[in-house]
Design a protein that fits this description.
Elements: H1 4-8, H2 12-19, H3 24-30, H4 35-46, E1 50-53, H5 60-67, E2 75-79, H6 88-91, E3 98-104, H7 108-118, E4 124-129, H8 138-151, E5 157-162, E6 185-191, H9 193-202, E7 231-236, H10 241-250, E8 256-261, H11 275-280, E9 289-294, H12 308-317, E10 323-327, H13 334-343, E11 349-353, E12 375-379, H14 386-392, E13 400-402, H15 411-417, E14 425-427, H16 435-443, E15 450-452, H17 461-469, H18 474-477, E16 480-482, H19 491-500, E17 506-508, H20 517-524, E18 538-540, E19 565-567, H21 572-575, H22 578-587, E20 592-594, E21 606-607
Parallel strand pairs: 1-2, 2-3, 3-4, 4-5, 5-6, 6-7, 7-8, 8-9, 9-10, 10-11, 11-12, 12-13, 13-14, 14-15, 15-16, 16-17, 17-18, 18-19, 19-20
Antiparallel strand pairs: 20-21
Helix pairs in contact: 2-4, 3-4, 7-8, 9-10, 12-13, 14-15, 15-16, 16-17, 17-19, 19-20
Length: 608
């Protein structure tokens, strides 16, 4: 062990160089060790131009310690889960050019006001408000947002997302009146279709008077608007022809268009997206990234008036597309999707969600094309089988393959996947694969980093053993593993992960009823099982009914030294462990405990 006196003998320049190689979290934990490290760590922190706290949630004291002497910081990313209102003045500084605030429940009006007053040089601003945040009335939010945009006249990228079903889309009403001319990227959620059309129209026309509905008492430019918007992302209550045609007529420089709607009722046939709206996209000659998604969050609606003709028109008019995501196009068939695959020669990302008529036939001729696909997602496409996977294996550049809820994909498909030596992400959730198929992955040379087997009911403990003890490369690359909702998973599988999952940092075992305290405790040991393996950072135990309140003893330090997120919803830890919860929360303030059964790394339902 190196003592403080030993460190004092090291040249200060050498110590400084060593510490600058550490991330912010490591620097912060190093500082209290001794006076020498405290001084050197403070120096290192004060010289950082980029700080990323997205993987660790600092409290106000830590944030102040990290930032108070830094005068050169340009880019700051914050997980705001543990911050209070007093921290806003700590991170809003005039030298900042990029601010990203994640999982934020701070008063948005205070954030807007402080950013507008203290960050005049900001170029990139992202704010993601969680649903548990207390939001001020929309007219107050609008006023403070307008003040911020007036003070930040150089903003090039603006992203503001309010999460939750009850968010008022009126917050963004008339935002177009205050957007700086420098804006190139705009992301807003939620927004009404009506306000979106007003926004699109005003980015182009001359404006000589303020609309009577706006009364913010804030001065703004009365001259022509000359936005050069290149990226637009909106979450709406509806996507219609009128909206899409307005976008394509007024935003000719668009490179990326991302629209998602969440209808609460079946859209009216005369007020919905049709082939005509799809055809209008052809006038966006610079468009390379297109996403049109109809969410089923509130109502199982689809784009009923778009069929294969719409897909043909899209393929013909947008041949330069490199990324495409289509969700809810229930009337399009193989012919429509094939036209996109064959016309868009530079296509790298192809995502299709809830396509009822997409089958293996769509991928038959992939080997005969100049396939440049890198990312393929075919979620909830129930007609697809292993034959489609075999054809996709001809795309040797493939890095991401997502077959979520493609229930007819079986072991035969895994044999094809084993030839993809660039694949890093594989989602087989709900597939009909078995232990035998998983063994093919365990023996192969596919460098998979993230693997989802959720709901693969024919995979058991033996399959996990085959995966990690098969002698293949996956045992050295796998970092994220989801084996939730699998009745054949028990302590044996978790012990295997504790012993052989050397790189696994994110593990989901929710709804695995035969997992008990013993195997979970093994995951938290630094020595014994899998000595030298990376510590877990996120662990999902939701609905694991085999656990008992005694597990709290295994969650205490020094076990699980790297754990930052733990899901315990619908377990006896939550039902009977109030005292244990309070003790763990007090002892480990860096650990976020999710009580609501949210997915891993959630925004809400947490205490910390």
């Amino acid at each position: 062990m190196v003592r403080g006196s030993d460190l004092e003998r090291l040249p200060q320049s050498l110590l400084h160089e060593i510490l600058t190689k550490l991330d912010v979290e490591s620097l912060s934990s190093t500082a209290p060790v001794c006076k020498t490290l405290h001084f050197s760590a403070s120096q290192a922190l004060s010289s950082l131009s980029t700080i990323d706290f997205s993987g660790f949630s600092p409290d106000t004291w830590i944030l102040n310690h990290v930032l108070h002497e830094n005068k050169v910081l340009k880019s700051l990313t914050l997980d705001c889960s543990r911050l209070d209102s007093s921290s806003i003045s700590i991170f809003t500084k005039d030298h900042l050019q990029e601010v990203v605030l994640l999982k934020c429940s701070l008063p948005c009006t205070s954030v807007f006001a402080s950013i507008g007053e203290h960050c005049p040089n900001i170029r990139v601003f992202t704010l993601e408000m969680v649903s548990r945040a207390v939001l001020e009335p929309s007219h107050i939010c609008k006023e403070k947002l307008a003040q911020m945009l007036k003070g930040c006249s150089h903003v090039e990228s603006l992203c503001i997302k309010f999460r939750g079903a009850d968010c008022d889309p009126g917050v963004f009403e008339s935002i177009e009146l205050f957007l700086p001319k420098t804006i190139k990227t705009l992301q807003l959620r939620p927004m009404s279709e009506q306000h979106a059309k007003q926004l699109i129209h005003e980015t182009r026309v001359f404006r000589n008077s303020v609309p009577s509905s706006v009364d913010f008492s804030i001065p703004f430019s009365m001259g022509p608007i000359s936005f050069k918007l290149q990226s637009l992302s909106l979450v709406l209550d509806g996507i219609t022809d009128e909206l899409l045609i307005s976008i394509t007529r007024n935003l000719s420089l668009l490179v990326k268009l991302d629209l998602e709607d969440k209808p609460r009722l079946e859209p009216l046939l005369h007020h919905d997206l049709t082939n005509s709206g799809i055809q209008s996209l052809g006038s966006c000659s610079h468009l390379t990234d297109l996403s049109l998604i109809r969410s089923r969050e509130f109502f199982p609606a689809t784009f009923r008036r778009v069929n294969d003709m719409g897909m043909f028109l899209l393929a013909e008019g947008c041949k330069s597309l490199e990324e495409i995501r289509l969700g809810g196009f229930s009337r399009a068939t193989d012919a429509g999707f094939v036209s996109i695959l064959h016309s868009c020669k530079s296509l790298k990302k192809f995502e299709i969600i809830n396509a009822h008529f997409l089958s293996d036939l769509a991928f038959h001729d992939l080997a005969d094309t100049s396939c440049s696909l890198v990312n393929v997602r075919l979620a909830s496409c129930s007609l697809l089988t292993s034959e489609a996977v075999e054809n996709l294996s001809s795309c040797k550049r493939l890095e991401v393959l997502d077959l979520w809820a493609c229930k007819s994909v079986a072991d035969r498909g895994l044999s094809s996947i084993s030839s993809l030596n660039r694949l890093t992400t594989l989602n087989l959730g709900g597939a009909d694969v078995t232990d035998s198929g998983i063994s093919v992955l365990g023996r192969g040379n596919v460098p998979i980093v993230s693997l989802c087997l959720r709901g693969c009911k024919r995979v058991t403990d033996r399959g996990v053993a085959f995966l990690l003890h098969g002698g293949g490369i996956i045992s050295k690359t796998l970092a994220v593993l989801d084996i939730g909702y699998m009745p054949g998973i028990s302590d044996r599988a978790v012990f295997t992960i504790a012993e052989a999952g050397m790189e696994i940092t994110d593990l989901c075992i929710r709804h695995c009823f035969y997992v008990t305290n013993a195997s979970i405790a093994a995951l938290g040991l630094e020595r014994g099982y899998g000595e030298g393996r990376k510590p877990l950072r996120r662990l999902d135990l939701c609905h694991c009914s085999g656990l008992s309140v005694n597990l709290f003893g295994s969650l205490k330090r020094p076990s699980f030294r790297g754990l930052r997120w733990l899901g315990i919803g619908s377990t006896c830890l939550l039902n009977e462990g109030d005292a244990g919860l309070l003790e763990i929360s007090s002892e480990r303030p860096e650990l976020r405990l999710c009580l609501n059964g949210c997915e891993m790394g959630c925004y809400d339902g947490c205490i910390s």
